[in-house]
Every structure is written in structure tokens, then in C-alpha cells.
Design brief:
alpha/beta; Rossmann fold; eight-stranded mixed sheet; 50% helix
Length: 319
């Protein structure tokens, strides 16, 4: 089941800090490009290292190619950029016909003052730029690596929030156009990421409720990242396993192995409990991604995650 990867023109990827949402966003970009899509990866917060992970140089505010013919001759392209609010403001002034010199002076001097008086404006400017890129068909798929969960909802709520307080003018027009994009699943959907732990799952449920139910943004399958593999052998005691293989264990070895097995059983039980809790709270299908035991992800690790995304059969999906 891979249709969901390119189901929408824009995919906003979000999750609590530390759950790997940026890595999942990169894996999504890689998986879609391997299927032939022209992908634009937008790092809203400009997290360092993502350009290198995706096979190119560091991401900056200029659209540049990271990889071509991803995965082979039939593969697509991965491009990347960030969108600083100041640049989005300058682009917005240009769109409204403000001249170059005046535009540069206004965008440098006015944004902090205007943003301070208009909460949510900087978020709206960035979303407005994404909306322009989507409307201009800049790429087959735009992957937005959103701010962490605590900031993702305000980021995506900025359009509706400003629509409530601004009653006329270009800011209202921009807010309404962004709201239209967010509400159209053919144009924009959200991909939420969590770890199989209580707090991240709780925050995913809360974010899903806010984005999906309150803001009306359609959700892709929910991704539970870094899942431990099922190991049926953990149910067997180390002593019993040793006997079945005709191996003799010392008391110290039995104690160490039993401690490790108990830890594994506990982690898997917690993981199952949290995934079941998520499935009970939300109707969206759930995708699990494997835990990779590495201190620093590299291109080979990202390839594994992209393959896992592309081949995943979501829990709860209609067969």
C-alpha cells in the first residue's frame, strides 16, 4: 500500500520533539522520490543535517537539488529549502507589487514590529509561501518538516486564528487561501509521528484531535516510530531455552539473560499497550516503523525507513 505517500500535494509532518518526525519526513520524501515523484522537502525550522541525510548539501533558503533519479533510472528528484519568515514576508510584498529596494527595507525593518502586533503572522507567511509553491505546482509532492508538536498546532492554526481577528485586507485574503489549502485533502494532509510511549502517544492523540477534528485537516496514517521487533522467544525462560539447545548456563549468565528478557518483555508489552490505546482513540490506520539501533542515522538507515514506509500495511487499514 503506497498510494498514501503521494495522496496529497502537501504533507505536513509533525510530532513531539525527539520522536523522529524530521527523519520520518525525510524517509517519506525518499520513498516518494523512489516511486518517480519530484519531491520538495521544506525544513521549516531548518534542522541541520537533513540535507546530508537526504544525499546532498545543507538545506538553506534556496531551492536546490539533493538527489536526481532517486533509486535508479525511473526515480524522481529530491529538492530542499527552508522558508525563513523574513524571506516569506519579502516574497509576499513582491506578490503585492512592492518594489525591490522598498521591499527589502520593509521586510527587514517591519516584520518584527508587525509580527509582535499580529500573533501568528510569521506562521501565516510561511504557510502562505507553501501555498504559493503548491498552487504553482512547484513539485509533485511538498513535504513540510513542521515544528515540534507544541508549535505545530499554532503553526497550522495561524490561518484560522488570523481569519477570526482580521476582518479585511491582504492578511485576511492570505489566511483564507491558506485555510482553503489546509481543508482540501487533495492539496494538504498531515502525517503525525510518535514513539510507542505514553507521553508521545498522548501528545499525538491531542494533536490529531486538534488538527483533524478542530481544524479539519485530513490525516494520513499515524506513524509510530522506533518500534521494537516482536520476539516470541522472550516468553521462554533462558534456562528453558538453554536446555532446548543443550547448552549449560552459569547462574550469573542465567541471571543476566533473565534480566534482559524481562526488559524486552516489558518494552514490548508497553509498546502493544500504547499502540492499542492509539487505535482506540483514533480511527486512522497506524503504521509502525522499526527501531534502528544506531547513535546517528545515515543514508542506509534512511533507506531502510523509506522501504518500511513504502511496504507498510497500516494497522486498521481495509484490506
Amino acid at each position: 500500500m503506497t498510494d498514501w505517500l503521494t495522496q496529497s500535494s502537501v504533507v505536513v509532518v509533525a510530532g513531539k520533539g525527539g520522536v523522529g518526525s524530521s527523519t520520518v519526513a525525510a524517509a517519506h520524501a525518499l520513498a516518494a522520490a523512489q516511486q518517480g515523484a519530484d519531491v520538495l522537502f521544506i525544513a521549516v525550522d531548518g534542522r541541520p543535517g537533513m540535507g546530508e541525510l537526504l544525499g546532498g548539501r545543507e538545506i538553506n533558503d534556496r531551492d536546490h537539488v539533493l538527489q536526481r533519479k532517486v533509486g535508479g533510472p525511473g526515480g524522481g528528484t529530491i529538492r530542499a529549502r527552508s522558508i525563513p519568515a523574513e524571506q516569506a514576508f519579502g516574497d509576499y510584498l513582491e506578490l503585492k507589487g512592492v518594489g525591490g529596494l522598498l521591499r527589502r527595507a520593509a521586510s527587514a525593518a517591519s516584520l518584527p514590529m508587525i509580527a509582535a502586533a499580529t500573533p501568528g503572522l510569521e506562521h501565516l507567511l510561511v504557510l502562505g509561501k507553501i501555498k504559493e509553491l503548491e498552487r504553482d505546482k512547484t513539485a509533485d509532492l511538498i513535504i513540510v518538516d513542521a515544528p515540534p508538536a507544541g508549535h505545530a498546532a499554532p503553526f497550522l492554526r495561524s490561518a484560522s486564528g488570523l481569519s477570526d481577528v482580521v476582518k479585511s485586507g491582504p492578511v485576511l485574503d492570505q489566511a483564507q487561501e491558506v485555510s482553503e489549502m489546509l481543508a482540501d485533502p487533495a492539496r494538504c494532509m498531515a502525517l503525525l509521528v510518535a514513539l510507542p510511549e505514553e507521553t508521545p502517544i498522548t501528545e499525538m492523540i491531542e494533536l490529531a484531535n486538534e488538527l483533524g477534528d478542530d481544524l479539519g485537516i485530513s490525516l494520513l496514517p499515524l506513524v509510530v516510530n522506533a518500534c521494537w521487533p516482536d520476539r516470541p522467544g522472550l516468553d521462554k525462560s533462558p534456562a528453558m531455552a538453554a536446555r532446548s539447545h543443550k547448552i549449560k548456563l552459569s547462574a550469573a549468565a542465567k541471571s543476566s539473560l533473565e534480566s534482559a528478557a524481562a526488559f524486552g518483555r516489558s518494552r514490548l508489552a508497553q509498546q502493544r499497550e500504547q499502540i492499542e490505546r492509539l487505535a482506540t482513540a483514533r480511527a486512522e490506520p497506524i503504521i509502525t516503523l522499526p527501531r534502528l539501533a544506531t547513535p546517528r542515522l545515515d543514508a542506509a538507515d534512511l533507506e531502510l525507513l523509506a522501504d518500511a514506509l513504502a511496504s507498510a500495511v497500516p494497522i486498521g487499514a481495509t484490506q
